[in-house]
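Here is a typical protein record:
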Amino acid sequence: MSFGTDVRQSMAAALLLPLLLLSRQALAAACCLSATSFGVGRLLVWEDFAIGFSLGHARVLGQWDAQGNLHLNPPGYSEGVTRTQLWMIVRLHERVQAQAWAPVLINDRWSNDEHQIVGGLGDVGGAVRVELVSIGALKNLPSLAMTLSGAFPTGKRVEQTSLPLFAGATGLGAYTGSIGLESEYAFLPWFVRLELGLTGYLSFRRSDTGQREQYGPLVQSTLSAGREAFTDRIVIALALHGEWQDRIEFNGTAVPNSRARALSTAVSLSWRANPHWTLLATGSNSVWPSGVGMNRDARVGLDLGVRYGYF
């Protein structure tokens, strides 16, 4: 091989190396835009595991009835829910991640001269996420992931609360199983993600009446979009979440007018302070004009969190 050929190959390698590095950085950035935007999220491509803690508070401003009418709280009544959650994600395989979470909730209710503040452990849960198609793996096509999750009835149901204001429900109190699909398309610095989920519940026996109760199946959908800013340290995202639930059953008989639906919006800000630590803030709202919700709370909330990723 001649000296001229060596020089030409060296120059070509020198020119291609920055392009390859940029391509890898772009793929890594694309895969991680939404990883920490909402909820527990997922691992970044270079992480082996991550742990996090969140603290949030929401004020319940009213209730939707079975006809979809919004009733704001009467004068003198106030209610709030404080939620803390510890969670962890572990990589089992390049495309498989396991998640676990344990929430603690505190419910405060105030009515004129009476008040009640009660809390406890919520419904502990876990999930396995399988990445079927990675972001950027197929040119101009979105990613696809599937999640199988479940929760245990470690929380306290509504009928297990007590006087004077029956505060302190911390969970559904039923074994829960869910399947979800998630698809995301990234075009730097933006991303768009669509999530669909179906949840089913096992029946349980109520402690107050002895009847067997079963929640109806729940369908959830979330559309979110966002972008990175300030050299990939900050990700700003917006989300629109909808849920629809079928009727409750008592001893196998459906309860009339017990279907439920809700629509909520959220905005999140995540700041990657360094390669390991990320700070998170999310504001949410489910207060809308009458007709939007049904048999659900109407609330506004703020959640703050911190996340550590190990690699």
Summary: The CA atoms of residues 102 and 124 lie 5 Å apart. The longest helix spans residues 3-32. Helices lie at 3-32.
